[in-house]
Amino acid sequence: MKRFLVEISKGRFKIHGFVQEIGQDILVSIWGGTRPHIGAVGMAIPRPSLKNQKKWSATSSNFTFVGHKEDILVKKFSEKLAARLRRNVVVTAGIHWDEITFNEIRTIQNLAEKLSDRILRKILSSQR
User: CB-based contacts of 111: which residues, under 8 Å, 6+ apart?
Assistant: First the structure.
């Protein structure tokens, strides 16, 4: 069972991602901000693409606690990893900064995208 921590930051924003392999499945916890928590959970399973059977995609189910907005993050994150790795993936996320602006939200979205890329590269490199 492999596990590792990845962190990414820009300015005052820092996001953490903890990855644990559980058999062939992958569990990712993402948190950051002044009040880390679990705001949403995304579960994705790989499948052949509906548009091109030679490519892989993923189907996800997502659960979000009332008042939280991490659902888009866990959906994108879990589907990306499941499709690329062809493994079941569960992602939890809870990121919160008080009085954040729209542009700062975009910064965090970009950091989350980069975090998913780093996690994907690390998993793929360990499989070689």
Answer: 8, 9, 10, 13, 15
Joined together, the tokens standing for residue 34 give 């002044």
pLDDT reported for residue 1 = 59
The CA distance from 47 to 45, in Å, is: 7
- For residue 39, give both structure tokens: 């705001």
Q: Which residues, including other chains, have CB under 8 Å from residue 7's CB and lie 6 or more apart? A: 14, 15, 16, 17
Is the pLDDT score of 93 beyond 90? yes
CA–CA gap between residue 15 and residue 91 (Å, rounded): 14
3-class secondary structure, 109: helix
The hierarchical CATH code for the domain 3-126 is 3.30.230
Residue 48 sits at φ, ψ, to 5 deg, of: -60, 145
The answer to whether 20 and 114 have CB atoms below 8 angstroms apart is no
CA dist list (Å): 62 to 41, 102, 105: 6, 23, 20
pLDDT of residue 126: 86
The closest of 38, 25, 42 to 77, measured between CA atoms, is 42
